What we know:
Strand content: 15-25%
Family: Belongs to the ITPK1 family.
Protein name: Inositol-tetrakisphosphate 1-kinase 6
Distance between the termini: 26 Å
Largest sheet: 7 strands, mixed
Radius of gyration: 28 Å
Pfam family, one: Ins134_P3_kin
GO molecular function, one term: inositol-1,3,4-trisphosphate 5-kinase activity
Strand order of the largest sheet: 4-3-2-1-5-6-7
Domain Inositol 1,3,4-trisphosphate 5/6-kinase ATP-grasp: 294-475
Amino acid sequence: MATGRPVRLVLDASLLLQPSAIGEAAAVALRPGAEALLRRLRYSNLSVAISYVEGMSTNESGFLEMVTSSHSFGYIPLLAKSGDCSPNELMLEWSRTSSCFYMTSRVDKGLISELWNHNWRVVSVGNECSIEVPGVLNVGRLQELLLTLATLIKREIGGSSVLVIGYVMKQSREEDFARRGAFPIYPSKDGLIFVPLSFELPLSSQLQKVDTVLHKITDEIVKIDPNCSIDFPKGISFSAGMSEIIRFMEDHPDFCIIDPFKNIYPLLDRLQIQNILVRLQELGTEGKTKLRAPYSLKVDNFHDGELDKHLAEANLSFPLIVKPQVACGVSDAHNMALVFQIEEFSNLSVPLPAVLQEYIDHGSKIFKFYVIGDKVFHAVRNSMPNASLLKPSSGEPLTFNSLKTLPVATKELQLQTMVQDSKSVDTDLVEEAAKFLKELLGLTIFGFDVVVQEGTGDHVIVDLNYLPSFKEVPDSVAVPAFWDAIGQTYESKRGKAQT
């Protein structure tokens, strides 16, 4: 694979600026979609520069300099020549050592001809007359540019040895992955190119240009009917874009996706997560540390007259942590409560149906495990303190949102009850559990949380989630493992499809 040859990309200013900006005093702004394009190119591993025609207004020139500086791009002039524009000498020099792409919405036949003669690939956006210019590829909208660029790079420097990975996830997650270098457009060492799929364009045509899709389907949930949770995906409403992807996958069962939707649905339901974790007892061996699921009970209301009896049957005693059965995808999925006595259920606001779970004293320490393909990583994070430090004097339950702020004890109480806990996590045992869960779930990338119970030393897995950010793992090891996992999953699924 010829990925040793660098890729240089030049964006003409006409591609980025609103065409309505006229004159020195005119307000200058980016075209719709230009900011997203620049943001994604910033961490693309491509050499990017913005070109401009000499004679631009001061406002335009100053605005472009600000844009290029904020994204760490180059800024180069196109030189006037016989009424046309000719390439900067630097651009001609690049063509000798690099694969070069010029993208514009301003068609200049002389410029394009000279670039073409120097082996540049030219893409014109939104200008129909460019179809008549030899050597120019035309696309209709700015949102098509990244996928077009990815397919050109694949053809130019990698061929069949490069995979184009289309991805779908919310912007904050995408930016985190991109900032860490996980989403290059220049091929990774494993020959992977990452490109976002746009919900503003027909998805079927985009999906036909990528080799596989990486997704965080839970980012695209619009609504969940909690009464259907045991039968997911029944009762789930997705965004229009994700619904189109789901239909495409149903019509193309051999298309590779990381990971199949059906493998992820169980992680949307805390009751199903509990049923999965209960199977950890299959790993139990005499004389080893106990690895288990938390004791739990599903309830459909908090006013059951026999709740005491049901709690005893489930091996549960107070305090209890109360969680909605729906694990994600709705606004209140992370609204929880810590309940210290049965009377506190009377005015509890946690959504129903709910899962009552034992609260495990774990010394404010939680172990975050990440399974990325065949590799397992872990990190230690501060967590909720022991229950004795949290019990309110008011006799009310302690409510909180687990994604925002976890309950903490005052520093005074922590100092009063501080105990040195010499216990640490048994990584060999938990890695064995990770492999077991990977086989059981059929997922490429997932995470789970482990707490070590004070007193017994039991290792209790309290949560499972799909495609976590694994931000506690150093990028230098996490990102290559991420690429390896995607490549291995693709090759495995392609092999199965061909047999």
